[in-house]
Design a protein that fits this description.
Layout (H helix, E strand, L loop, with lengths): L5 H14 L4 H8 L3 H8 L7 H12 L3 H6 L3 H10 L3 H6 L5 H15 L6 H7 L4 H8 L8 H15 L3 H5 L15 H13 L4 H29 L1
Helix pairs in contact: 1-3, 2-3, 9-10
């Protein structure tokens, strides 16, 4: 069964409009597509300007054109794939750089959505050559400026609805090898707990510095006591 045929597309548009409680005229105001055109699409009648019309509808409702065409949602599928990762691997993503996150999404799209995102199309949308795309999605060493990463993150958001802030929230630096891998998840939960509570990063940073100072003082006291007793 072809899920990209006009009838299936119309069903998805109608379901999307109903989920937001929009009338046809409200959907028109949201998307910039006339209510008569939306009504025809929902009835399974495709127009010559279908692609541009679907793009407006997708932008108006904050989804991807691919979802309207195929029923598949790359953002939802990607987030589901992350949730299925082992806790330690999932925690590592908190400390992954924006470039690492960008490459992770590209590999996901190229492996899970080859029909929706052919290499040529994906490269064109990211303003890359196919060879540059393959190198970016590979595992070799690669260096890109922050501005370049941010620009591609914005383009990927347009394609997949994965938000720019997810890409750019990554840690730009090397994760210290002295951190035990089994503790990464615990540290990530602490960061999330502080963020949910609304604790400012500078306040959290200061509190950690005080804890480090106290920890070092206690360690010095223990060492001095051990020398006296020894």
């Amino acid at each position: 069964m072809n899920k990209s045929n006009p009838w299936h597309i119309g069903r998805r548009i109608a379901a999307l409009r109903a989920a937001h409680g929009d009338s046809l005229r409200q959907a028109a105001a949201r998307t910039g597509v006339s209510h008569t055109t939306i009504g025809r699409l929902e009835a399974g009648q495709a127009s010559a300007s279908l692609n541009s019309t679907l793009r407006k509808i997708a932008e108006g409702y904050g989804i991807t054109v691919e979802y309207l065409l195929t029923g598949r949602d790359p953002q939802r599928d990607f987030e589901g794939a992350l949730r299925r990762l082992p806790p330690e691997d999932r925690a590592r993503l908190y400390f992954a750089s924006p470039l690492t996150r960008l490459r992770l999404v590209l590999r996901f799209l190229m492996s899970e959505y080859p029909a929706e995102f052919p290499e040529e199309t994906l490269a064109e949308r990211l303003c890359l050559s196919v060879e540059e795309l393959r190198r970016l999605a590979g595992t070799g060493e690669l260096t890109l400026s922050d501005d370049h990463v941010a620009a591609m993150a914005e383009r990927l958001e347009q394609l997949t609805a994965i938000p720019v802030h997810w890409f750019m929230a990554g840690f730009n630096g090397e994760l210290s090898p002295c951190i035990p891998p089994e503790r990464l998840a615990a540290y990530a939960r602490i960061v999330e707990k502080a963020a949910v509570a609304g604790i400012r990063p500078d306040v959290l940073d200061m509190a950690i510095d005080l804890l480090i100072l106290q920890h070092n003082e206690l360690a010095a006291d223990h060492q001095a006591a051990a020398r006296r007793n020894g």
